[in-house]
Structure formats: structure tokens, C-alpha cells
Design goal:
The complex is a heterodimer of chains A (1185) and B (293). With 1185 residues, chain A is an alpha+beta fold. Chain A has 36 helices and 27 strands. In chain A, the strands form 6 sheets. In chain A, strands 1, 2, 4, 7, 10, 12, 13 and 14 form an 8-stranded mixed sheet that branches. In chain B, β4 and β5 form a beta hairpin. The chains are: A alpha+beta (1185), B alpha/beta (293).
Chain lengths: 1185, 293
């Protein structure tokens, strides 16, 4: 009996299209995740796509989606009798209730499990595809798939199946199930934020029905090596979690699955109370003879459009999806996560991004699912024969259905826009940028979405049924995701797409309107054709074959239709040619793959010239004319250059700058050879070689401008309002450029290149005389005359000598009074300025007038920094420091001599009304200010660790300024971010993690780890010793080029006057990759008679060293480590938590037990609570009493 | 008024639905009789512009239906055999919606027409309920109401009385007759009594072909004196069927009544007055004979 029921379910579903559609969907998702690099679920970086970690992770993530699978299959099993009105037939048969229910349940569960088996299958087959990069995959081990499937997927699917089977039996409504599914999802996301708290972590691991957090808990400490080889053991939280949920599933099934008890009919929904019966008035027969006139096209169109919209709007799934999207919209509004967790002001540009993100899923669903529903509505509902025989032209149906979906999308954007507008008003934004909303949402987002709707409609019309149509669209959609990796990244191949539309408050839409409009015209042409095609094939009446409809096609579309197709083709071809001409003829286009090929060939052919002697500038006089409205720069740079190498120069490799033309290089006795268009390089050849030490003048003149428009790789440095170009972007570069080399290991090996050498060995003393900026960068005398539009300010390093108007243009002449690094830039924008004089230094902030919020904080930071650095490291070398805002297309701040360009995205717009946020503008300003010492007074040699000297020391200096202003406790939050990012990014390392001493321009090491290391050192040595050592280091190498310092010099200074133990500690930090593993596992609390508390702490402690791949070796630990007790959460520093207890205790490897006595306000206890050590999980250091 | 010439249609799966059908249908009610699968619905759908034909033509009152479907749709009322409706829409709203599409543009008179139709189909008291929640008979009445919208000149009703109780059926017949004078009404059915009661003209369709057309009265007259009947047991019936041209077999009080079509009186059979049912069954019988011959 049971067996037959199971087989019945099984056979039933194998005949349903939904079975095939969902199977293929699940398969494709993981297939593409595994086989293409553009879709990522698990893995990434050095973690193998088919290793045990990636497989488990993929299956766990997909199991969240499986909820909808379960609702669909198990739900429809449970409801099928009810829905198809078979109940009376079935329940009158002599069935045994439990056999019947259980049989159906098992059958449906088996089907769900089968569909879900396509997830590992997709990964497996995807990983075996010939085009995948073998480096990203390890050996195929079937056990990984089987284990994850048995351990995670099957139990999870069982619990979900039991849950939804029970709900279906209880409520007999599909809707109830979808509501519960969405509810579970939302709760799950919300619960996620709690589970990050270490106190709840084990609980979360036990209570996660999907097992995702269980896995995260177990695999938290896994290194890359572990992730690629370690099978999960079925014990501990994993075992308990699975047992808990299996029992929950059994209980749900037995208690609510209708297994016991009788099979009963669902109670018919009790009708609403009968209203007083309507009395039918008498109607004369003549009334019936009211003859039909002719409804206008417009009347029918409006009626149908409204009708279609209501049909979608008031359908339950749509309401649920809508709520889901609103949830998605509101979460980032309530809890905005900006830079280092600091929220930004709710700028319209951010709001628009939030809307786009939160509606993305909904729009995809509308395009796939609702388009199908709308197109097939008459057929599905069964009224097709009636409606289709009415005197309504096909155009009314076709256009009204399309319009309905279009309007639906527009209304959604409207609602979301009103939501964010209200949010902006409530949050004190005084200017609302309605135009930006309309243009970005309407023109940049909605229009392409509407085009996608036309495409989906046409696909549906040409498909034999809606499931096939949806499937075709999904396949199309997934194809677009991988099209890039097949060499079709030009957006002319991507239906509805246009070049990225970056937005900046300074530069507004910039170039994007022009290029977007051309692409839209191009796609409109195609869409016109599609529109007519769909109209011509629009199906009326019962299904007729495409051939039958095809015969009538020309008749259907008529002359007008043919004209529209012709017009569409003309538009498509015309604008397409124009786009082609602009993006591929006027400008160069290459795919990422081609670009990498070029890089590889460049390295192969030219690397041998790496050590050729080149000319190095010692004096620069530049004349730059910026024409902002034409995005044009004309530059002439006169340089005095020296052959500072020991060999004569007979020819020199020249890299011509991007985006530039008419580049001329005039050198006495030198001629420029023809340009190699592939590398954009040429040779500067000297008839008589330039002897070592020879000085010559080099005059470079060029015009920089992008002709027409481009598809990608926009010149975002040269824009109408907010130009910011530095010398290496502007000028030809001399000599081989290691920066051109490919980095990613697997991309290199694909092209037969050995792993990259990112830096020269630390001990390679031949490089000590080369600056880390490059071999050709030394100290120069600098002078620049820059002109721009009269309403803009142009700025370059140096002091303003003169400012004048000439020919309706504004001129500025800047000159630096002392040598500076050959590293300069110029900017031009319409900016407001605020200046303050502090200790003889003019502090100036140039900002976009709308971004005025944090200008005072920046000035404050400049002053605080100046005071501290002057005292700690030595005097500031200039009499001025300027911060200049530039558009957020690039997100960084960069320190040039007395000049700091500062992106709009990283501080100007931070919303610091909440004191608990990290003061980002203050920190970034201090960091850039510190570069005036670390970087501009002291350089670094071109070897490993070169970025550590400027960046790690600037981090330290900035943190000290922060600490002086905000206190040690507030730094904890910042350091927590730093440590977290270090730990996270080392898992994504592409080549090899190196110790700080040897970091090879690895940001996560020289910034993130550097911050923690330096603060750790400060704690150990004390500020006085550390600052004195740093000052000595600075004095030894100030303005010194022969040699530049290395990290060896830095460590030598750090160790000066320090005892042996601390020297060993310094080695741990700099020379090794050292990690601590401190966990406050348990705290026992006992009240003492005197009202105080005795706390017994159980602490796990370990010290580990790791190699470059993350293989860890335990080292003996015996270290004095902070134990702190607080009356408040140390993260909530707005509440100003008090340190009730603060002392170092000696901790040794393994379990440590400590007893401490504290006052009874104690709420939080922490081991190394202020993050002075590199702890591989800082979150479990704090324990809440 | 409605002239169908040489209409043929073969479906993509090879089923020949219509084979060279020619009919001339005057004003008034026209009965189209045929067993299930005879091609009635295909013919109806083709006339109702929902389906194309492979060959042939349909002309209604000067409108070339296959070439200019929208012109016909303006004067067409169509009740398909099977239909369902959009979910969650009340009877009034749905009928009103269809009325606008039909061409009843002016709101006030349209509302009056809609209410009147609901009243005449006995649905007025349910007009605010969703049609999708109606029982089968109510839904059928709704179908009738929508077919009558806009006073169509051509009314095609496919199995209209299926699922109606006898009272509703009579009511519908009366409505049709009172509205039917100036219209062409094609009534497709397999219930002979419907045709007998209503139609001055009729045709029999089977296997995609017209087997017979004419006035029911005349057709019955032609058959008079050739129908013989006998009441027998079930076992006898089986035996007799093999010997005689038995056109129909029905039960009366548990015994089988056989009708035989023959020029001369078979032994043991009594003469019985011919009815339209005998016309229908003898036609089908003859057709079967011809096919097997």
C-alpha cells in the first residue's frame, strides 16, 4: 500500500513540467557556479571549487532555496486532492489513513531529494567541464558530495518537508505555505545577526535547521589547506544539530501531518453571511438587444491594462514578494553598513543603489514568472475562447499586457522611491534629488527592464507553453552571466545593457547619459522588431502551431508592422554602427581575457629589459590646460632627466599613456620609434648613447581626451567636474613596468608563466637605491601652471604663486619650495573651501558644497595630527595642507606633497550624528596627514615590505591620533574591523601570505595586520619608546635616496633599547605569521559576602605560526595577556563603558583558569578585549555575564 | 446568412476534424447534432474565429470570416463548450469587463444591459460573487449571459444546456426563442430533444462530415413507417442486434427497447412513430454501415 502510494507520487511528478524546470534550474545554478568564474556560491580564490568546503557551502546555501522546492512539491502533494477536487473520490476509498499520508509524504520527499540531487550533480559536472581552469579545482572525490548530501541536505529536506506537509494539512492553502516560507526566511536572516554574537554562536549552530551556521561554526578556523582537504566529522554540534532537527521533523510529521486520525474533507470556507437576497428587478427583453457599438482602442486598452495589473498586484505571491523586497529595502536603511560600519548620510545616490539592489530579485521574478502568467492568463484561466472571440484587436491584448507589466515595475519603483524619500526627510536630508531618482531609476534601470519584458513576452508567445517559455528565459538569463567569460563582454552582446552608469554628486551623470542613450537607441531598434514579432505571433484561440501562425504573420502585422520592423532594423543597425565606431574604432576595446593575453605577452617579450637603465626626472615644470566641458587636457611637461644608472642608455622602453593622443617626446638626440599598438609602447632611441650621469632635458607634450564614448574602461579621472589625474596616469612611463604583470596564479599558468614575483627579495640590496614608487621616481623640483574653466578651482602640489584670468580661463601657478617625490597630481572642480591657520600651517578643505558635514572634523583631525606628529616624529615640512574632494568613481584618498585628494565616498558623506560610529573622516585624514612623514619624508626601497613603511606607520600614527581623541576603548571597534579584514582576506590570498616584514604590496597585511601589530607593539613597549624608535628611524632615512630604508631597518630601530623577550615578540609580529587563539570559554560568577564578585575564568590559549598557505603549527605560549572587565559592552562605546578591572595575566598553551575579584557592576569580561594580538577569532574573546 | 463552403481542417497531430464541410444556415435556430468527437466544436471554433481552416470559406452576412475575423467578432456571441473564468472577479464586474471589450462603450446603458442579462439568466442575486466560485450550472448561465452581450447577429452556443436543471433549461430555451428571430443561432448539441424543441433547421455531423441536413419535421416525416420497435431482454437484444439493423437501444423499466430501421416490418416488431431521435440514430447507423462496407 505505502509502496504503491510512493510510486504514484513518484510517477506523478516525473510527468510534471515543474519537476524538470526545477531540476534544471538547480542544476544550472551550481553548474555555472562551478564552471564559470562569474557566478560564485562556495569556494573562490585558492579554495577549490570541488573541495569539501566549497561543496558543503554550496549545498547549504542552496538548501535555503530548497524551501520553495519543498513548498512546491510536498505542498502540492498534500493539497492536490483538495485543489483538483478529488477529495470526495479519494476519501471514499477504503484507505488506511497513516499509510495513505505517510506514503504520499515519502513519495513527495523522495522527489524533493531527487531534485535537490541536481545541486551536487551540477557542481560535479561543472567542475569537469573542459573549459574550467584546472587550478581552481582539486581531484574529484565523490565522497565529498555524498557526505554533504547525506549529512546536510537529506535531513534538512526532511525537516522542511515535514514542516510544510504539516502546514498544508493544517491550512490547506498554498498561500499559507508561501507565507510561512517567506516568514522562515526573514526570521532566519534576522536570527543571523544574533548568531554573530559569540555567546549565541553554539546555540545558533544547534538551532539552524539548514545547518549553514552549524557548518560555519565548525569551519570557522579552517585555513585554505583545511578547506581543500578536510572532511567534516559527524560529531559535536553537527551531530546534535542533525539529531535535533530530525526529531523535530518526525514530531511535526506525526503530530500535525494528519498521519493519525481520519481523512476528512476540508471544511468548505463558510460563506460570508448571506446578505439580504438581491431582488432581481424586471428587465425588458429589449434591453438585452442593446447592440454592440465599437469600443475605442483606448477604452479597451485602459480596461485591459488596469485589469492585468490588478491580477498581478492582488495575487498572493506578488504581495509576499513585495513584502520581501520591502524588507530588503528597509534593512539597509535601518542598519546601513558603510565604510568600517559607519553609516553614510542618506544621499540620493545611495538610496537609488539601495532600491536597485532590493528590487533586483523581484524584477527577475517579474520578468520570468509574471510575464509568463500575463501572456498565458486567458489560456490558464480557461476563459480564452470567450475573450479571444471578442472584437478586440490583437494589439489591445499585446500592448495592454506589456504595458501592465511595465507599469507594475514603474509602480514598484515609485513605491520604493517614496519610501526612501520619506526616509531621507526623516533623517534630515534637506535636499532631495528627485531628478536623479527619475533619471537613474526610470531611464537607466526601468527602460532596460522594460525591454527585457518584451523579450520575455516574445519568448512566451513563441513557446508551446509557459513552462518551456520560462525555462528558455532562465537559460537565456544564465547565459548572459557567463557570456563574458566566453569573450562576449562588449555590451552590444548583452541585451538591454549599456556601459556602467557610475554616479557622483560632483560630476552628476557625466558621460553616462550620452553612451547610455546610444545603447538604448540600439536596443530600442531590436525591441521594436521583437515587439512586432511577438505581436504577429500572438496566439489567439486554442494552441496553433508556429507554422500555422507563421503563415498568417505578414497578414497579422500588416504594412505598419513591416514598416516598424524596418524602422527598428534601421535604428538597430544605425546606432549599432555608431556604437561600434565609437567603442571599437575610435577607442580600443579588449575583453578581460584579451587584456590578460596582452599582459602575458608583454611580460614574456619585455621582461628582459627590466634592468635597462632609464632616465629619471630631477626637475619638472608642467603646463596643464584643462577644458572640463570637453573632458580635455593639454599638457606640456619639461623635465630635467638623468641617467642615474651605471650603463649608457642607447634605447629606452616608453609606455604611452592611456586615453592620450598626439604624444610627443622631444629629447636632444633621441627619436621615438613607431608605436606597438598592442602594448602601446615605443622605443626612444639615442643616436649617441647617454652616458651614466648624463643630464638631458625631455619635453613631453600630449592631449588627453576620449574621442566619442567607450563601452568600458572609462577615463574617470578626466571629467567635467572633478578631474583628478596624477603624473603616472598622465605621462609616458619609462622602462619596463612590473605593474603590467598578471597576478593571479592560475591565469599565469594558463599562459605558461611561472608564479609572479610580486616584489624583489628583501635581501636584494641592489634594489635599495630604487624607490618603491618605481625605479624612475626620485626627488624633484616641481612647478606647475594649470588652467581651467573660470568657475572651477585647479590645484596641484606646491604653493600658489599667482592666480589670474586670461581669455576667459582661470590660471594657477604652483611651485614647491623644496624637493619632493616625483609623485604629483592636478585636480579641477567647482568646490567650496574652508581654511584655518594652525601653528603656522594653513589647513584647507576643498569640498563639494553639498558635502559640508564633516569638513570641521577633517580640519580638527589635521590639527590634532599636526600637533602629535610634530612632537612625536619631527616637524612638518610644508606650511600648508589641502584636502580636496574628488568624485566617488574611485574610492581612496592619496597623499601628495601638501595635497590630499580625497574621494567623496570615504568620509565626506559619513553620518556621524551617532557617537558610536567610527569617525572615518577623522581617521582617513590623520592617515593621509601621516604620509607627509611616512612616505614623503621617508621613502622605502623597492623590495619586499616596501609598502609597510609608509602604510603601516601611517596606520599607527592615525590610530594614535584617534586614541588620543577617542580613547583606547573606542579603538577596539576599529581594530576589530582591521583584524577581521585581515583574517578574512588572508583566506582569499591569491599567491602566498607573507609575514609583515616581507609583505608584497598586500593591503590586508600592510594596512590591516599592520594596525593591530603596531598597537600591540605600542602596548608592549609603551608609547614613549616606540615613538622615539620611530623618530630615530625617520631621522636616519629622512629624504634619503641612497639607500632607501627597508623593513629590516625599521625592525632594527624598533628593537633598539628593548629587552630580549620583547625583541622576540617583535620577531613574532614581523618575521613570522603568528596567530593567537584566545577563547574565553566559561566564566563562573560567585557573589562574595562583601558584595563583590568572584569570577572564575576558563580560557583556552594557543599560539600558532602559519605558513603562506595557512598550514598552522602550534608554538608554546607563555605570554602576559590583558584581562579586562567592563560594566557595558565594550563595543557600545557611546555608553562609555568603564574598565572595572584591567590587568595582564600570564597565559600558557591550553586551558588556563583564573580567578579575579571585581565589583558587582561587572557585565562583560574579556581576554585581550582591546585586540592587541592577532587573534584568529576575536569574537570569542568577550563573555557576557 | 451563414454560408460555409468546403471547410477542411486537419490538426497537427493528424486528426482530421473537418472534411469538406459545406452548410447554408439561414436566420433562426439551427441545430447541429453529432456524437462526441464529431467535429462540432472544431466547426464552432472555426466559425467563432478562434481557429484557422486549411481550406474552404465562411461567409456571414457579407463578412469573409476567415479573412476578416474582427468584423465578425463584432456581431458574434459565443459560448464555448468548456470554459472557466478569471479568478476572484464578481459576475457583474466580469460581465461588464467583457461588455466593454464587446463594444458596449457607454457606461450607463452597458450597466443596464449587464444587469438585465444577469436577471434573465437568474444570476442577479449572485452578481457580487466571484464567478470562479459558481457551481457548474451557474457558471453555464454566466456563459450564456456573456454570449448574449451586445445583441449578436450570430450566436454560437456549444452544448449550452449541459449541467442545467430542467427548469433552467426551459428558461434558456425560451430566452433563445424570444431573442432568436433576427439572428442566426447555431446550437451544437448531442441532445436530440434540444434540437427537436427549438430548431426549424438542423444538420448531423459525424467524423468531420455533414451526414444530413434539413428541417427536422420533414426528416421525421420521411422516416415514418420505417421504424419498428420491440421490447426484449438483454440477452435477446444481443442476438437481434446481429441480425437486424438496430439503430437504437434504450431501456424502459429495466427491459431493452430496440428500434429497427427497415422498409418492411421485421418479425415480432411493432410499428412505432418515428421521432427526431430515430432520424439521428438512423443517420449515424447508415454512416457506420457505409464505413464498414
Amino acid at each position: 500500500m505505502i509502496w504503491q502510494l510512493i510510486r504514484f507520487e513518484w510517477r506523478y511528478y516525473l510527468r510534471q513540467p515543474s519537476f524538470y524546470v526545477t531540476s534544471i534550474l538547480f542544476f544550472l545554478m551550481t553548474f555555472f557556479a562551478a564552471s564559470s568564474e562569474s557566478v560564485q556560491i562556495g569556494g573562490g580564490g585558492e579554495v577549490w571549487g570541488n573541495g569539501p568546503f566549497a561543496i558543503s557551502q554550496t549545498m547549504l546555501v542552496m538548501s535555503i532555496f530548497s524551501m520553495f522546492l519543498v513548498v512546491n512539491f510536498v505542498g502540492s502533494t498534500a493539497l492536490r486532492n483538495h485543489a483538483s477536487q478529488m477529495e470526495e473520490l479519494v476519501y471514499s476509498k477504503p484507505l488506511v489513513s497513516w499509510q495513505y499520508q505517510l506514503g504520499r509524504f515519502i513519495g513527495a520527499y523522495a522527489v524533493v531529494a531527487l531534485v535537490f540531487a541536481f545541486v551536487p550533480l551540477g557542481t560535479l559536472i561543472g567542475s569537469l567541464m573542459p573549459w574550467v581552469d584546472q587550478e581552481r579545482f582539486g581531484p574529484t572525490v565523490l565522497a565529498y558530495y555524498v557526505q554533504a548530501f547525506l549529512m546536510f541536505s537529506l535531513p534538512t529536506l526532511f525537516v522542511l518537508s515535514a514542516l510544510f506537509f504539516a502546514i498544508a494539512n493544517k491550512f490547506r492553502s498554498m498561500m499559507a505555505m508561501y507565507l510561512v516560507a517567506v516568514g522562515v526566511f526573514v526570521l532566519y536572516v534576522i536570527a543571523g545577526s544574533f548568531s554573530r554574537e559569540p555567546a549565541y554562536r553554539t546555540l545558533a549552530a544547534l538551532l539552524d535547521p539548514f545547518g549553514l551556521r552549524t557548518f560555519a561554526d565548525v569551519a570557522r578556523y579552517w585555513t585554505i589547506h583545511d578547506k581543500n582537504s578536510q572532511m567534516l566529522s559527524f560529531s559535536g554540534v553537527v551531530l546534535y544539530n542533525r539529531l535535533i532537527w530530525l526529531s523535530v521533523g518526525v514530531v511535526l510529521l506525526l503530530a500535525f501531518g494528519g498521519v493519525f486520525g481520519k481523512l476528512t474533507l476540508a471544511a468548505k470556507a463558510a460563506g460570508k453571511k448571506a446578505k439580504a437576497a438581491l431582488v432581481a428587478p424586471e428587465f425588458d427583453l429589449e434591453v438585452l438587444k442593446t447592440a454592440a457599438g465599437k469600443s475605442s482602442f483606448w477604452q479597451q486598452f485602459v480596461l485591459r491594462t488596469g485589469f492585468e495589473m490588478r491580477q498581478v498586484f492582488f495575487s498572493m505571491p506578488f504581495i509576499i514578494l513585495g513584502l520581501f523586497c520591502i524588507f530588503n529595502l528597509i534593512v539597509p536603511l535601518i542598519d546601513p553598513q558603510g565604510f568600517y560600519g559607519t553609516a553614510d548620510w542618506p544621499l540620493t545616490q545611495t538610496m537609488v543603489d539601495v532600491i536597485i539592489d532590493s528590487t533586483g530579485l523581484l524584477f527577475i521574478i517579474i520578468t520570468i514568472y509574471y510575464c509568463a502568467e500575463v501572456v498565458w492568463r486567458e489560456r490558464t484561466s480557461g476563459i480564452g475562447d470567450i475573450v479571444d472571440s471578442l472584437p478586440v484587436s490583437n494589439m489591445v491584448f499585446w500592448l495592454s499586457k506589456l504595458t501592465a507589466v511595465w507599469l507594475l515595475m514603474a509602480v514598484l519603483y515609485g513605491v520604493f522611491m517614496l519610501t526612501t524619500l520619506s526616509y531621507q526627510l526623516l533623517n534630515g536630508m534637506q535636499t532631495l534629488d528627485i531628478n536623479q531618482y527619475l533619471i537613474r531609476l526610470g531611464y537607466f534601470q526601468l527602460l532596460p527592464a522594460m525591454m527585457a519584458v518584451v523579450l520575455a513576452f516574445v519568448i512566451q508567445v513563441l513557446s508551446p507553453n509557459k513552462y518551456v517559455g520560462m525555462l528558455i528565459f532562465v537559460v537565456y538569463f544564465v547565459t548572459t552571466l557567463v557570456l563574458n567569460s566566453w569573450g562576449f563582454s562588449h555590451r552590444m552582446f548583452h541585451f538591454g545593457l549599456s556601459p556602467d552608469a557610475a554616479f557622483s554628486d560632483l560630476n552628476r551623470f557625466g558621460w553616462t547619459l550620452e553612451s547610455h542613450s546610444w545603447y538604448m537607441l540600439y536596443w530600442t531598434g531590436l525591441v521594436l522588431g521583437l515587439f512586432v514579432l511577438g505581436y504577429g505571433f500572438y496566439q489567439r484561440g486554442p494552441a496553433q502551431s508556429l507554422q500555422t501562425r507563421g503563415r498568417l504573420f505578414r497578414y497579422q502585422i500588416g504594412l505598419n508592422g513591416q514598416l516598424v520592423i524596418a524602422l527598428g532594423l534601421v535604428l538597430f543597425a544605425g546606432s549599432g554602427s555608431w556604437i561600434y565606431y565609437n567603442t571599437r574604432v575610435l577607442n580600443q576595446f579588449s575583453t578581460a581575457e584579451q587584456q590578460m593575453d596582452i599582459q602575458a605577452d608583454y611580460e614574456k617579450m619585455l621582461k628582459k629589459h627590466q634592468d635597462d637603465p632609464i632616465l629619471v626626472a630631477s626637475d619638472v615644470k608642467a603646463t596643464v590646460d584643462i577644458v572640463p566641458e570637453q573632458r580635455l587636457v593639454r599638457a606640456t611637461v619639461v623635465q630635467q632627466m638623468t641617467n642615474k644608472f651605471s650603463l649608457p642608455i642607447s634605447k629606452m622602453l616608453v609606455h604611452l599613456p592611456q586615453y592620450s593622443r598626439e604624444v610627443k617626446i622631444e629629447v636632444p638626440g633621441g627619436t621615438l620609434s613607431a608605436v606597438d599598438p598592442r602594448f602601446n609602447t615605443a622605443w626612444l632611441e639615442f643616436a649617441t648613447p647617454l652616458a651614466p650621469g648624463a643630464v638631458t632635458s625631455v619635453v613631453i607634450s600630449l592631449v588627453r581626451q576620449t574621442p566619442g564614448f567607450v563601452d568600458s574602461n572609462v577615463d574617470t579621472a578626466l571629467v567635467e567636474n572633478g578631474t583628478f589625474i596624477n603624473n603616472s596616469e598622465l605621462l609616458p612611463m619609462f622602462g619596463y613596468q612590473p605593474g603590467m604583470e598578471l597576478q593571479a596564479r592560475h591565469e599565469r599558468s594558463k599562459r605558461d608563466l611561472a608564479p609572479v614575483q610580486r616584489a624583489f627579495k628583501l635581501e636584494d640590496s641592489r634594489r635599495y637605491n630604487e624607490s618603491s614608487f618605481g625605479r624612475g621616481e626620485d626627488f624633484i623640483q616641481f612647478e606647475m601652471t594649470v588652467s581651467t574653466a573660470p568657475d572651477q578651482i585647479a590645484i596641484a602640489p606646491g604653493y600658489l604663486q599667482k592666480e589670474w584670468l586670461e581669455n576667459g580661463r582661470k590660471y594657477f601657478h604652483y611651485k614647491m619650495d623644496k624637493p619632493m617625490f616625483n609623485f604629483y597630481s592636478f585636480l579641477s572642480a567647482r568646490l567650496a573651501v574652508k581654511k584655518e591657520l594652525h601653528n603656522g600651517v594653513s589647513m584647507e578643505v576643498y569640498y563639494h558644497p553639498d558635502h559640508h558635514w564633516n569638513v570641521d572634523r577633517m580640519l580638527m583631525s589635521l590639527k590634532d595630527s599636526l600637533d602629535y606628529f610634530n612632537e612625536a616624529f619631527g616637524p612638518y615640512q610644508h606650511q600648508q595642507l589641502r584636502i580636496i574632494e574628488f568624485p566617488g568613481y574611485r574610492q581612496f584618498a592619496q597623499a601628495f606633497a601638501n595635497t590630499v585628494p580625497f574621494s567623496e565616498q570615504i568620509g565626506f558623506i559619513s553620518d556621524l550624528r551617532d557617537d558610536s560610529e567610527i569617525d572615518m573622516p577623522y581617521y582617513v585624514t590623520a592617515h593621509e596627514m601621516a604620509h607627509q612623514w611616512w612616505g614623503h619624508q621617508v621613502g622605502s626601497a623597492n623590495v619586499q615590505g616596501s609598502a609597510v613603511i609608509p602604510e603601516t606607520l601611517a596606520q599607527y600614527s592615525a590610530l594614535r591620533v584617534m586614541e588620543r581623541k577617542y580613547g583606547e576603548v573606542k579603538l577596539r571597534k576599529f581594530l576589530k574591523y582591521e583584524l577581521d579584514r585581515y583574517l578574512r582576506d588572508r583566506g582569499g590570498e591569491q599567491v602566498e601570505e607573507l609575514p609583515l616584514l616581507r609583505a608584497e604590496n598586500q593591503g590586508y597585511i600592510h594596512y590591516r595586520k599592520g594596525s593591530v601589530v603596531m598597537m600591540s607593539l605600542k602596548d608592549r613597549l609603551g608609547v614613549a619608546v616606540l615613538d622615539q624608535n620611530l623618530k630615530n628611524f625617520l631621522q636616519e632615512f629622512q629624504y634619503k635616496q641612497t639607500p632607501y630604508p627597508t623593513t629590516l631597518d625599521l625592525v632594527r630601530h624598533l628593537k633598539t633599547g628593548v629587552n630580549a623577550q620583547d625583541q622576540a615578540f617583535i620577531d613574532d609580529l614581523f618575521v613570522n605569521i603568528t596567530l593567537f587563539d584566545l577563547r574565553l570559554k566559561d566564566v563562573k560568577r560567585e557573589e562574595l559576602p562583601d558584595g563583590q564578585l568572584k569570577l572564575t575564568l576558563t580560557i583556552h590559549a594557543a599560539k600558532l605560526t602559519a605558513d603562506g598557505k595557512g598550514v598552522e603549527t602550534e608554538q608554546p605560549l607563555s605570554e602576559l595577556i590583558d584581562i579586562g572587565v567592563f560594566d557595558q559592552d565594550p563595543d557600545a562605546f557611546a555608553e562609555q563603558p568603564k574598565q572595572l578591572y584591567w590587568q595582564k595575566h600570564l597565559l600558557k598553551s591550553g586551558e588556563n583558569n583564573l580567578e579575579i575579584i571585581v565589583s558587582k557592576e561587572a557585565k562583560f569580561v574579556g581576554v585581550d578585549p582591546l585586540i592587541k594580538l592577532i587573534d584568529r577569532d576575536a569574537a570569542d574573546n568577550i563573555y557576557k555575564l | 446568412m451563414l454560408a460555409i463552403k468546403n471547410l477542411s481542417k486537419t490538426y497537427d497531430n493528424g486528426v482530421k476534424a473537418l472534411a469538406d464541410v459545406s452548410l447554408n444556415i439561414p436566420k433562426g435556430m439551427y441545430g447541429l447534432l453529432g456524437p462526441n468527437g464529431a467535429g462540432k466544436s472544431s466547426l464552432m471554433r472555426t466559425i467563432a474565429t478562434l481557429q484557422s481552416a486549411d481550406a474552404g470559406s465562411i461567409n456571414f452576412d457579407g463578412i469573409d470570416v476567415l479573412q476578416n475575423p474582427n468584423a465578425l467578432r463584432r456581431t458574434l456571441g459565443y459560448l464555448p463548450q468548456d470554459f472557466n473564468v478569471y479568478p476572484r472577479i464578481s459576475a457583474f464586474d466580469l460581465l461588464d469587463h467583457l461588455a466593454v471589450l464587446k463594444g458596449l462603450a457607454e457606461k450607463k446603458s452597458r450597466h443596464e444591459t449587464v444587469n438585465a442579462l444577469l436577471a434573465h439568466t437568474n444570476l442577479f442575486q449572485h452578481k457580487d460573487k466571484a464567478v470562479s466560485s459558481f457551481s457548474g450550472g451557474m457558471r453555464q448561465r454566466f456563459g450564456i449571459a456573456q454570449a448574449l452581450l451586445g445583441d449578436p447577429k450570430l450566436l454560437i452556443v456549444d452544448e449550452p444546456t449541459a449541467g442545467l436543471d430542467p427548469e433552467e433549461r426551459n428558461r434558456f430555451h425560451n430566452l433563445l426563442v424570444s431573442l432568436g428571430e433576427e439572428k442566426v443561432i447555431i446550437l451544437s448539441t448531442h441532445i436530440v430533444d434540444d434540437v427537436a424543441e427549438l430548431c426549424p433547421q438542423m444538420a448531423v455531423l459525424a467524423g468531420g462530415q455533414i451526414l444530413l441536413q434539413g428541417e427536422p419535421l420533414k426528416l421525421v416525416d420521411e422516416l415514418q413507417g420505417q421504424i419498428w420497435s420491440k421490447t426484449v431482454s438483454q440477452a435477446e437484444a444481443v442476438e437481434l442486434e446481429q441480425q437486424l439493423p438496430v439503430i437504437s437501444k434504450r431501456l424502459f423499466a429495466g427491459r431493452t427497447v430496440l428500434n429497427v430501421f427497415a422498409i418492411s416490418q421485421p418479425q415480432g416488431f411493432a410499428a412505432t412513430p418515428a421521432g427526431l431521435e430515430d432520424v439521428y440514430f438512423s443517420t449515424l447507423f447508415n454512416s457506420r454501415q457505409r464505413q464498414s462496407a
